[in-house]
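User: quick one - fold this with S-adenosyl-L-homocysteine bound?
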Amino acid sequence: MSLSEKLIEHIRDNGPLTVAEYMGACLYDPDDGYYATRPGIGGASADFLTAPEASQMFGELIGLWCAHEWDALGKPAFNWIELGPGRGVLMEDAIRATKRIEGMHEAATLVLVETSAPLRDEQAERVPDAEWESRIEEVSPGPCIIVANEFFDCLPIRQFVRGEDGWHEKLVGLDEAEHLTFGLSAAIPAPDSEDEIGTVREIAPGLDSIIYDIERRLHDAPGRVLIIDYGYAKPEGADTLQALKRHQKVDPIETPGEADLTAHVDFARIAQLASDANLQVHGPITQGAFLRALGIEFRAEALTRANPSHAERLKREIHRLTHADEMGALFKVICLSSPNLPPPAGF
Ligand code: SAH
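Assistant: Sure. Structure tokens for the protein plus S-adenosyl-L-homocysteine:
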């Protein structure tokens, strides 16, 4: 039975799903979910290309950022954690770039938080010395540097739509031909708001619980978290659910489990939760500004000196990572830190 057939049967028996339940099934179903079945994620032939896949400079600069922040923590023994490492390219580049930082690798316990079995296998080829956990809650306490690139965008969202008669939750149900379709719940008793009709508000319950864990961790021991993702500094009230299949946008309701489903990350929410918990918040700033502040141009010059024939390719990669028409502006970077640390590099 395909995932689509399973969902149709489930809805017939139990009624419509929330968008979060639908997204969760499409991404994480153990048999047919996108992450469970697609080890090729992120590669050139895959459905989407992430920053570390686009250029080695990305992981290298993040690695050097981690080294700088490990120094700012006072060089303790620490958990070097990546959330959702994909094929493990970022961490592989980060490790290579920091191998001459004295004492850092000896002090680090590498922990990769990953739910997908095929992706864990891919990660093990590039980062053989890591430990794996399925949830950040399972990582042992202590000082930490945490990196998450394009991880929060895959956490399931619920969507609420402002209609003529109030707010409705967006649901996935069946049309007359028993095909999956989006619909709306009855109006929810919710406070009236200034939002125009048609406004969509999104919440990501899984994001909140990960931030709560991070808050506890950063209060128990010194640490920093770097979150990079596409998203908005302030919610715009639009539907941001999107499905990508072989670099093309497709309808999220078609081919469940076969396309990557994501939503824009609400950076304002992350910043609010963290500052309510008395963490330090830096950013969000654009990925372009962050990478330029970390010296991506100098990194490219050094790589070009070592290998002049790569000059054009490196230029294209910088453009891709930092230009506002590419990943430079839509992608944002935020850093959350334990109290009483100096400001992080790059902000
Ligand atoms: N960071 C990588 C890959 C991003 S794709 C890169 O930049 O290339 C998202 C990654 O998060 C995949 O490895 C996916 O399997 C993992 N993932 C998604 N949801 C997860 C969850 N709830 N817990 C742990 N890992 C998750």
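One thing worth noting: The chain has 13 helices and 16 strands.
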